[in-house]
Amino acid sequence: MSPKQDIDLQHNLAEAIDSLLSIKDCVRWGVSQFNRAGLYFGHGTDNAFDEAVWLVLHTLSMPLDLDVRFHDCRLTRSEREAVLSVLIERVTSRKPAAYLTGEGWFCGLPFTVNEHVLVPRSPIGEMIQEGFEPWLSGWEPSSILDLCTGSGCIGIACAYAFPDARVALSDISDEALEVARGNVARHELGERITVLKSDVFDQIPPQTFDLIVSNPPYVDAQDMADLPEEYRREPELALAAGADGLDIVRRMLTSAADYLSENGLMVVEVGNSELAMAEAFPDLNMMWPDFEQGGHGVFVVTAADLRRYLAG
User: What is the pLDDT of residues 162-200, one digit of tens each?
Assistant: First the structure.
């Protein structure tokens, strides 16, 4: 942002604090600022309006499903100052809203997040809500591993979906694991969920899991160079994965068979690296689900098919 743009924004802020009155006014103002600044939305919302609503209501300690009758309620000056300051920070910092609120949502569940973890948004959430059908065919896993867990949202959501399963969350980042432990405590699942530090499978004790789920780093070098500013606020460790985006996934597939039970299933998100994945592993039988709620690039492979592939 240029010095002139910053001056203009501060002038707009001072004028807005004096002129805007209601929740609806503040949301409209935020949408206008977001559109003028050309912000990118992809971390829980996909448009300026929803992002502004999220930030305004969170700042006011109001629920996201606030009754519309409250939208015309007037705010105190201190409330307007707080709300508009957050909206301005979204513009100037380019931080996704979840980092400004400290909270993201996944599978209808709240999760604490910060800039040490990705903002929850994986399409794997849709698979969790559907019980990983049809791939599990009604079979409930008794043991689940969330590899490269970040905030822990995938593994914790799996714990809700399969209440009799034991779950392990694993990540290489100490900072991410601190967030994950906090979310385990927040959801009171400490008796069923174990949190482990490991570089892929390297430090995970020998054991098998019925289901391994992962949203690993998978962004290739070209996509990393082209990322919008909002994505650059997320930890590079959780995104970048070499020239073709498959550095981590290759390591995972090399060892995963040793950690899958006989009838186990592995579900991995690779996003835009889907084509590279298909080209790199043409002989591996992978299934690629379609998603009604948006998203792509998730493959499903059975333990049997993975072992068959590794055996050559």
Answer: 999 999 999 999 999 999 999 999 999 999 999 999 999
**Using a CB cutoff of 8 Å and minimum separation of 24, what contacts does 89-95 make?**
90/30, 90/34, 90/39, 90/51, 90/55, 91/1, 91/9, 91/33, 91/34, 91/37, 91/39, 92/1, 92/6, 92/9, 93/233, 94/39, 94/40, 94/229, 94/230, 94/232, 94/233, 95/230, 95/233
Question: In angstroms, rounded to a whole number, what is the distance separating the alpha carbons of residues 172 and 163?
Answer: 26
Strands 143-147, 109-112: pairing is: unpaired
| Residues ≥6 apart with Cβ < 8 Å to 194 | 166, 167, 168, 169
* pLDDT-above-90 percentage for the chain: 92
Partnered with residue 118 across adjacent β-strands are none
Write down the pLDDT at residue 13. Answer: 79
CB burial of 24-41 (b: ≥16 within 10 Å; e: otherwise) equals bbbbebbbebbeebebeb
Q: Tell me: pLDDT of 5 over 70.
A: no
Q: Where are the beta strands (DSSP E) in the chain?
A: 103-106, 109-112, 143-147, 166-171, 193-197, 209-214, 260-269, 298-302
Res 1: pLDDT: 57
By CB atoms closer than 10 A (0-12, 13-18, 19+), residue 247 is middle
DSSP string of 183-223, one letter each residue: HHHHTT-TTTEEEEE-STTTTSPS--EEEEEE----B-HHH
- Encoded tokens for 74: 């007037």
Structure confidence by residue, pLDDT tens digits, 149-158: 999 999 999 9
Mean pLDDT, the chain, whole residue set: 95
Structural domains of the chain, ranges and CATH numbers in brackets: 3-101 (1.10.8), 106-311 (3.40.50.150)
Confidence tier at 6 by pLDDT (50, 70, 90): low
